[in-house]
Amino acid sequence: MSPRADAVRSRERIIEVARRHDARSLRLNDIARDAGVGIGTVYRHFPTVRALIEALSVETLVRLGAAADRAIAEPDAHAAFRGFLEDAVVLQLQDGGLETVLTDLALTDPDLHDECSVARGKVFAGYDAVLSRAQRDGVVRDDLSVAQLQRLICGVEHAVRLGAPADRDLLLDILVSGMRPGTPDSPAATTPAPMRRSAAIG
To answer: Region annotation Disordered: residue ranges (predicted)?
Structure first.
């Protein structure tokens, strides 16, 4: 049986109001008040804050999956990888709940919100495809995992939030540089750190 029209409207109203709030500090009581519905109505649709955050993030997950598709289609592996990282950071900055949805996997109930689980699965597949290609083409070191890459992106997101939007490109460039394959035989890699520092100071 299809949901009643009033139930659909209530759910849409709750999501509309929740989008105006910071996803990192959502409170269901506040959402109920601002949406003009009873707290029981909110709990019927979203029994936990996590469930509401997942609903809010589905659209962003779809956009992140599309970003991965664009990266895979980009012929230049370095441009593809750098572009995907930028898209991922931008989307996490826009959607404060996305980090939670992507990292706190144990808290997700797929029966409660299967749409989010499916979208997230596609995102992780996209992450894996983009990273695997970058590693295969010598753009990124081989020992980096998808989970580690995702956490590094979260780190850049946090750094930008603590600093300024203008920091984003610099931090991304530093991140990409740090993920390049190592060159163990190069002087920079074999010279002890204190000696390099002394030479630079002198």
So the answer is: 181-202
9: its two tokens: 């409207």
pLDDT digits (tens, 9 = 90+) for 31-51: 999 999 999 999 988 888 888
pTM of the model: 0.77
- String of b and e for 132-152 (b: at least 16 CB within 10 Å)? ebbbeeebbeeeeebeebbee
3-state secondary structure the chain: CCCCHHHHHHHHHHHHHHCCCCHHHCCHHHHHHHHCCCHHHHHHHCCCHHHHHHHHHHHHHHHHHHHHHHHHHCCCHHHHHHHHHHHHHHHHHHCCCHHHHHHCHHHCCCCCCHHHHHHHHHHHHHHHHHHHHHHHCCCCCCCCCHHHHHHHHHHHHHHHHHCCCCHHHHHHHHHHHHCCCCCCCCHHHHCCHHHHHHHHHC
154-171: pLDDT as tens digits? 999 999 999 999 999 999
- Two structure tokens written together for 162: 């603590």
Pick the CATH number of 50-181 from 2.40.160.20, 3.40.50.720, 1.10.357.10, 3.30.2350.10: 1.10.357.10
- φ, ψ of residue 5 in degrees (nearest 5): -60, -40
